[in-house]
Amino acid sequence: LTSTSQAVTGLTAGTEYEVEVVAVSDGGVESTPVSGGRWTLFGQPSAPSATPAGYALSSGDDGTNGAVDVSWTAVAGATSYTVSHRETGQGDDAWVEVTELSGTSTRLEGLDGAVSHEVRVAVVNGDDVASAPSTATTGAAAAVATGGTVTSFVGNGTIGVDGTRYVVHTFTTVGASTLTLNRTRPLDYLLVGGGGGGGRGPSFVHGGGGGGAGGVKEISAHTPSGSTLSVTVGAGGHGGADPAVAASRRGGDGGTSGFDGDSAIGGGGGANYFEGGEAGTGGSGGGGAHSNTAARRAGAASSAAGQGSSGGTATGRGYDSDFAAGGGGADGAGAGSSTGAGGIGRVSTITGSSVRYAGGGGGGASRDTGRASAGGAGGGGAGGFTTAGDQSNATGAPGQDGAGGGGGGGSGFHYDDGASAAGDGGAGGSGVVIVRYALP
Asked: Which H/E stretch holds residue 296?
């Protein structure tokens, strides 16, 4: 060698080596060897793994927001390890170190359970020299619950405590499912039953009433009954259809939505010329029809206080008005005026935004002289109507799924030539179950 340094390769990690240097003259005379000390070499460690996989929250209630058990493979020659973690995508100064770990696993606590994290490990030898860190392993958010569609938002002065992060689980698929908690914590929830279907407009001048919105419950600081909680999303009621079948003419009642033993009942179906509106068994009542009898013109009152509004209570829904009544909404009755408006829905901020849920369906108009409007902004579909020379809108539009709105009533008359065109009522929208919790 002619230089004063040399890289030595092919060594085995974890094995102690001695190094000495000898100077050689031009005549080949060697000096006395000089010892350079002893070294134990180690390689760069492999990336750590997480238990459970994907950085899901570990079991046990340790009082922290998110916790994950991280492990790695032992490295020969290591005297300790340093584990670092940060939120995914943050800068180099965001790494948080846990040092002087003697084993090959540790629990990382206090993680924000709504965002993903990166974890890496480095080896420290007997001379207190650290290796380069391993490749970082990225895990998913340390979720404290699973089920439904998961979103999150940070509270503000009108929604919650400043800086509080809420995780929201939204269920809109009709039928039964579950919310699984990895640890117990207070829950807020919103239940909306399925909307009632709109009544049929038979094949002459009379329009059908709008379906009532599903019942609504909004509960704060609920203590869950266990770790696996039942969820049910109620279906929307069918729209009134075949006039030859009595059970099919009026709009069907909406289905019940439920969560952890509580429930919100579906809305009542809208009336048609043959039957009056229905209250269902708890949600908002269905609107009355445009009919020549007082009983069929009458809308139904909600039969469960606090869950929804009466349906079709406004004046002007009678035989001479040419309009059927809209179904009741969660926070307002349906109208029977020339607008045929459905009842207004209830405003909730449980998702972090102001959203209307459970509006009633609009009533069906009977002639080209008027049109029924849609339900509340979170609610049902428009009532059907026809205009001169155009019967394309003779069927009531369906309710809005996931909002518990009632369907609009159908219409059936073409004013210019007297031709009749039956209009089926729109189906009610399905309900929704929304659960949220705050992360500490």
From this structure: helix 294-297
